[in-house]
Design a protein that fits this description.
Layout: E1 18-20, H1 35-58, H2 67-75, E2 79-85, E3 88-98, E4 106-113, H3 122-128, E5 132-133, H4 144-176, H5 206-220, H6 222-227, E6 235-239, H7 246-257, E7 261-265, H8 276-290, E8 294-299, H9 319-331, E9 340-346, H10 354-357, E10 364-367, H11 373-383, H12 395-400, H13 407-423, H14 431-443, H15 453-472, E11 479-483, E12 493-496, H16 507-517, H17 519-528, H18 536-551, H19 579-606, H20 608-621, E13 623-625, H21 626-633
Parallel strand pairs: 2-5, 6-9, 6-10, 7-8, 8-9
Antiparallel strand pairs: 1-7, 2-3, 3-4, 11-12, 11-13
Helix pairs in contact: 1-4, 5-7, 8-9, 11-13, 13-14, 15-16, 15-17, 15-20, 16-18, 16-19, 17-19, 18-19
């Protein structure tokens, strides 16, 4: 697994995929929603409204007064100056006067009109009152161009706002409606200067890497394969548990081949509007074909690739089914998808539609499993490249004590160790930090819970029962640590891990696991003759193991060699077997558990002194590591 690498962002919300290594495309032309007709109509309406508003504000600035009022102001000596052009008179008063005709406010500048039939001695009166007759208008009138610019300014401002809002709305509508009506392809995202992920950044899954080398070679040298009549694989399905590196492997394949890489989650294609997902699939494959050879990666494909025709579907026009049908069509070659390899990842390969997994679509299925011991060590080395490690840190020992952990879990382990080192104000990560981080990940964080001496002693016997039976059972996993410090939801924890990875389990080993899991309840029964709620998690483990033994793995003579219970515990068709068979499964499960419980109680009674010694050691120390636990019980640890 690699160190974190930058993931190319999406430059638009309506592009449900990311791409890297693709050549940049010209930016799309953005069309105005509504077109230019709507813009012109809006501009006309804004212009009319603006003129009305301006005329409203201009009204009353220089009121028109009657000639009688003008003569009255001249006679009172309240006119300071006037300007006359023909019979039109503009003037300014010395002191403000209330507006005539009952209008609110006062006025100082005014406009009036001298009647043609007036026979008064206006000039003499003006001269008598020392009124200045000017040669320029008292009330300055704006030119036509100035009026036009003033009236157009608000309109231009509103048009500018309209354009900005229209562009934003167009982008938002394109994302919210799934890009309906949008024909311009999105611009691929280019990671400039970023180093692409290759197989050098992948560890722990070498066998999977070998299976994908054929695809890499095909993408690098397609002509050699065409000469032999071989066609490029249509698709590769990566199946495996979460956290095993399926997405990383897809990116590494594209980086190793040096081809553009388009990635998307299957859920991002689904919208409430039927047909949007199919259009997005068409657009994605169209973009990939333009830069072929290319790789399209669809994560969590079981979201849309489940078996069709189930009860949850809404018929042939269901959005999920339409999206799946479009993917099938694109992969079938009818749309000219040559040169585009489709990678998909899922952790539920058993629920995929057969039409999706047939040859010609996904030609091969690659199972990505959790890494083995050497793989875990390589993954830890990758994730600790940027973490300063102290001298003496043994990553191989950490890898031995982490069987079954995936790459994502190991990355989390390394990060937790670094966080602990920072909290402890250390300059380097020590082996103790890694050990404590592993305990936190596997056992849970410590809880500051104050327990009475009686509860602590009962917990010590409970955990001692688990540990002692693990030590006494032949072939059982060695006990690594025992603690009565509350962690997570448990009041105490016993950690047992194998010395080497196991890939197949015998009936004897599974019975030993059941006996060890029942050890806590058996110890409380032997010592206190009571049963408490502390065995809840133990009983869940026992139930899962014995259900698999009887219903799936043929470890019961009565049930026989058949699968009576599906691997997920559910059946899409109701009952997975006849009711009589299921009753027999239940009976056999109870029989095996009862036998294991009786053996657990018998072993604890026979080794009561060892159980008491373990409990006393736990009461004194609270936590015992592997060596201390075996020493307290007086049992020699046999290394294999």
């Amino acid at each position: 697994m690699p160190s974190p690498t930058p993931v190319p962002p999406r430059d638009r919300a309506d592009t449900p995929w990311r791409s890297e290594g693709a050549p940049p495309a010209p930016p799309p032309k953005k069309r105005m929603p509504g077109g230019w007709r709507g813009l012109i109509l809006t501009a006309l309406i804004v212009y009319l409204i603006t003129n009305l508003v301006l005329s409203f504000f201009n009204e009353g600035d220089e009121p028109t007064i009657s000639y009688t009022e003008f003569s009255k102001q001249v006679a009172n000596g309240n006119v300071s100056k006037i300007y006359a052009k023909g019979d039109a008179i503009q003037g300014e008063l010395k002191t403000e006067q209330p507006k005539p005709d009952g209008d609110e406010g006062d006025y100082k500048k005014f406009v009036s009109q001298r009647p043609a039939f007036a026979d008064d001695d206006l000039w003499a009166n003006l001269t008598k009152q020392n009124v200045v007759v000017t040669a320029s208008p008292v009330v300055e009138q704006r030119s036509f161009l100035a009026n036009l610019l003033i009236s157009l300014a608000p309109m231009l401002l509103l048009v500018l706002l309209w354009v900005i809002i229209a562009r934003r709305m167009g982008s938002a509508m394109g994302g919210g409606m799934g890009g309906l009506g949008r024909k311009t392809p999105p611009k691929p995202v280019e990671l400039e200067g970023a180093k692409r992920t290759t197989f050098e950044d992948v560890a722990g899954i070498d066998e999977v890497e070998g299976e994908l080398n054929d695809v890499v070679d095909f993408l690098k040298n397609p002509d050699e394969y065409r000469k032999m009549g071989a066609r490029m694989p249509g698709g590769v399905l990566l199946a495996g548990p979460p956290g095993t590196g399926k997405t990383l492997l897809a990116r590494a394949l594209a980086g190793e081949a040096g081809v553009p890489f388009f990635s998307a989650s299957a859920s991002e294609f689904i919208e409430m509007i039927v047909g949007v997902g199919a259009s997005r699939v068409r657009e994605l494959f169209s973009e990939a074909r333009k830069v072929a050879p290319a790789i399209v990666f669809i994560d969590e494909i079981d979201t849309i690739g489940r078996v069709r025709g189930g009860g949850a579907a809404m018929g042939g026009h269901d959005e999920r089914e339409q999206t799946l049908n479009q993917i099938l069509t694109e992969m079938d070659g009818f749309s000219g998808s040559e040169g585009v390899v489709v990678l998909a990842a899922t952790n539920r390969a058993d629920v995929l539609d057969p039409a999706l997994t047939r040859p010609g679509r996904f030609d091969r299925t690659v199972v990505v499993s959790p890494p083995d011991k050497s793989g875990r060590e390589a993954i830890l080395r990758i994730h600790t490249r940027d973490i300063p490690l102290a001298d003496g840190v043994d990553l191989a020992q950490v890898a031995r004590t982490t069987p079954g952990m995936t790459g994502a879990e190991l990355a989390n382990l390394a990060n937790e160790a670094a966080l602990l080192a920072v909290k402890r104000q250390q300059q380097e990560v020590t082996q103790s930090d890694l050990s404590d981080a592993l305990e936190k990940v596997q056992l849970g964080a410590e809880r500051p819970l104050v327990m009475s001496d009686e509860d602590r002693r009962r917990t010590a016997y409970h955990e001692g029962g688990h540990a002692l039976l693990g030590m006494l059972q032949p072939g059982a996993d060695p006990v690594r640590k025992i603690t009565i410090v509350p962690r997570g939801r448990a009041l105490g924890v016993t950690l047992s891990t194998p010395d080497a990875d196991r890939y197949a389990y015998t009936e004897e080993y599974l019975r030993g696991r059941i006996i060890g899991a029942l050890g806590g309840m058996a110890a409380e029964h032997v010592v206190y003759d009571v049963i408490t709620t502390g065995a809840e998690n133990d009983l869940e483990q026992v139930t899962n193991i014995v259900r698999g033994m009887v219903g799936r793995w043929g470890m019961s003579e009565r049930i026989g060699r058949l699968t009576a219970i599906p691997s997920d515990g559910q059946s899409p068709y109701g009952l997975s077997a006849a009711p009589a068979t299921l009753d027999a499964v239940d009976h056999e499960m109870r029989r095996i558990v009862d036998e294991c419980y009786e053996k657990a109680c018998l072993l604890l009674r026979e080794n009561r002194d060892k159980l008491d010694a373990l409990a006393e050691a736990l009461m004194a120390n609270e936590t015992l590591d592997e060596a201390a636990a075996y020493a307290a019980a007086g049992i020699t640890r046999l290394h294999k």
